Amino acid sequence: MSFNLNAKRVALMVWAGAIAMSPLTANAMHIMEGFLPPTWALVWWALFIPFVIMSVRNLKQIVSEDANKKVLLALCGAFIFVLSALKLPSVTGSCSHPTGVGLAVILFGFMVVPVLGGIALLFQALLLAHGGISTLGANGMSMAVIGPMIGYLVWIAANRINLRKDVAVFLVAFVADISTYAVTSLQLGAAFPDPQLGAMASMSKFMGIFLFTQLTIAVAEGLLTVLIYEQLTKRELISFQERVLR
Question: Could you give the angle at which helices 38-65 and 69-84 cross, rounded to 10 degrees?
């Protein structure tokens, strides 16, 4: 089918764009296995699980209404997996990475991302030593829940003020990326507060480290998301009728 052929072509663009953004060596930024104290790891898992359950229900509803959307959902999942698996060096031995959640937020709303992002994080933890199982709840809340949620609010606001679509798409991807790192910094700051200045000071230090490279990465992710979105539109894999506020 031409639909599947076009989807495969767009998927190849995702891989090509991701490879172009990726250096040869680095370590992953997802909070690694065993890094969080057990109490904090359990807290973030407890917060993440309800969103996963709601996301599963939302995905079932989307597919039941239109089975053809499985292709776009798979593309969004691949986009998240590939971009969030990239390893881009930051400073002091840390690393950053894109998140890839913006495309799914724009096409389906943020409630599909907890499952798509959770699957990506799970496979990365098991197969790539990227992140971890104990910290998957924390990584999931930052990258698959709060970041996409804030990006979705940006998408709603951009549509209400009739912002140009390419600008709106860029802002969604950019803000969702930066928000993910702000949440990660908050998680690390809360788990490892500064002995003298407290958690907020520690959070500022973590954010300062990640922001050094994350601004550039977020811009690149925003531009790549705009490119993929435009290709989907040109190949009529999505219609203007589908790109409405949910």
Answer: 150
